[in-house]
Design a protein that fits this description.
Layout: E1 3-7, E2 34-40, H1 50-55, E3 63-67, E4 78-84, E5 98-100, H2 104-115, H3 121-125, E6 128-130, E7 139-144, H4 153-170, E8 190-194, H5 201-212, E9 219-223, H6 225-230, E10 238-241, H7 246-266, E11 270-274, H8 276-280, E12 304-311, H9 313-319, E13 325-331, E14 349-354, E15 373-380, E16 383-388, H10 399-409, E17 429-431, E18 437-439
Parallel strand pairs: 2-3, 2-4, 4-7, 5-6, 8-9, 8-10, 10-11, 11-16
Antiparallel strand pairs: 1-3, 5-7, 12-13, 12-14, 14-15, 15-16, 17-18
Helix pairs in contact: 2-4, 5-10
């Protein structure tokens, strides 16, 4: 297991405010106590998970160790542990976490402060508190529900960052800051992977897999609407929006978040959108980004099918001639029959067309789809956009195609992208402080 040693300290204080952090000054490790933040979740090799995010914190004295094993550290003055239930361990679809702590009142106040502005009052009211089996006051344990339950992994990471950061600030180990991200968390070649309202769990998981299982020189990190409104895209080279509902994503982002996405691409960022993410990039609704000046065909509900695609010569050159003719999943992705809605052709490049139609829920064969674009690219000021209507990310054999599309948006050479053997994430069975045995969440999920 990896561990991330960091200079700093951590302690528990009653009545914590949802304060965040900023580094103040460097200090020697012996200046304060030893604190451990334990993250019991396996992330894919090319994903910036919670452990890496916490490891970027820079307290001003003592030692903060970020660990990824379940052994614990008896020498620590305090420990915060973060666990995830698997789907089979999940008690319900409740998105609220469970917290195990001896000082229940203090722990609950701290957790609710970290959840504030990210969770509904109903979800916060459902937070479960448990006493530890041993009764120790030296450890807090937060058990998040599996993302299978509909909970946003990015938002869970955000709560964890805020919870740890608030402790540091409360002990005068750091000064408050306006954002939840460590100021020094600026990894190179980071792709923001949207993971919240408007997308399904598998949507973000499958894009994460496509990056991880190819030689694309970039890494993903899950983000939620609050992260985007807070400015996390300024630290990224690209943003990925999975399938789901474009209207739902736009509503969750709020106009400010949509504007930040638009500005990010205009300044040179990459945008890759599948299905709902493709809708979001266009002008079909006033709350979409409007970057691509096209409106999708109506009715938009064209069914769920396996459809044939044919790459254009431009598409074969960019995405790979081995994918010239493929069959892949489709689920109500956008269809664009009019590429010149105002009499002038939109500045898009068609990379693939549908070769077969879908059949909608009423049994109507949508023949109007045949021959229309399935994959398109477009420059947007200094940035690049790629939208994909169907779901090639649902099949591992198309991971190179997906990764090459992402690669183009961030200015890398798509021809360099090949499949690779990814390291397999794992899960392990652990006993919580409350005495419950659960299997910790792994990133290794099967597709639906």
């Amino acid at each position: 297991m990896r561990s991330f040693p960091i200079i700093g300290s951590l302690a528990v204080v009653a009545g914590l405010a949802p304060a965040l952090f900023a580094p103040v000054r460097a200090a020697a490790p012996q200046d304060g106590p030893c604190v451990v933040a334990t993250v019991l979740r396996s992330d894919r090799e090319k994903s910036f998970g919670l452990a890496a995010q916490l490891a970027a914190m820079q307290p001003i004295k003592g030692r903060l160790l970020v660990c990824t094993n379940a052994a614990g550290n008896s020498a620590a003055d305090f420990e915060i542990r973060f666990l995830w239930r698997t789907a089979k361990d999940a008690r319900s679809s409740n998105e609220a976490p469970t917290m195990v702590a001896a000082d229940l009142d203090n722990a609950r106040r701290a957790l609710l402060a970290a959840m504030n502005e990210s969770f509904s009052s109903q979800a916060m009211a459902r937070v479960a508190m448990e006493s530890p089996k041993s009764g120790t006051r030296k450890c807090w344990e937060v058990i998040f529900p599996s993302p299978h339950s509909g909970a946003s992994l990015a938002r869970q990471f955000r709560v964890a960052r805020k919870l740890v950061a608030a402790q540091l600030v409360a002990m005068n180990m750091m000064t408050p800051a306006a954002v939840s991200w460590p100021p020094n968390f600026r990894p190179a070649k980071m792709l923001a992977l949207y993971d919240a309202e408007g997308v399904g769990y598998y949507g973000s998981t499958l894009l994460d897999r496509a990056v991880d299982e190819t030689t694309l020189d970039a890494r993903t990190m899950p983000v939620c609407p609050e992260d985007i409104r807070e400015g996390i895209l300024d630290r990224c080279i690209g943003v990925l929006f999975p399938g789901g509902t474009g209207r739902g994503i736009a509503a969750a982002l709020h106009p400010d978040g949509v504007q930040r996405v638009r500005e990010f691409v205009a300044k040179g960022g990459g945008y890759f959108g599948v299905c709902a993410g493709a809708y979001l990039a266009t002008s079909g609704r006033p709350d979409y980004t409007g970057m691509i000046p096209l409106k999708h065909d109506q009715p938009w509900e064209k069914g769920k099918s396996k459809l044939k695609l044919a790459l254009t010569p431009e598409g074969a050159a960019l995405l790979g001639a081995e994918f010239s003719h493929i069959e892949t999943s489709y689920h109500c992705g956008p269809v664009f029959r009019d590429l010149a809605p105002d009499g002038h052709r939109a500045p898009v490049t068609v990379l693939a067309n549908f070769e077969s139609p879908a059949t909608d829920a009423k049994g109507v064969v949508r023949n109007e789809m045949t021959g229309t674009p399935a994959i398109m690219s477009m420059p947007y000021q200094k940035g690049r956009i790629m939208i994909v209507s169907p779901h090639p990310e649902s099949q591992t054999k198309f991971s190179p195609l997906v990764a090459r599309a992402i690669c183009w948006t961030i200015g890398q050479n798509p021809k360099s992208i090949q499949a690779r053997t990814a390291s397999a994430p794992h899960s392990e069975s652990v006993e919580t402080a409350g005495g419950e045995k659960i299997e910790t969440e792994s990133a290794d999920k099967k597709q639906p």
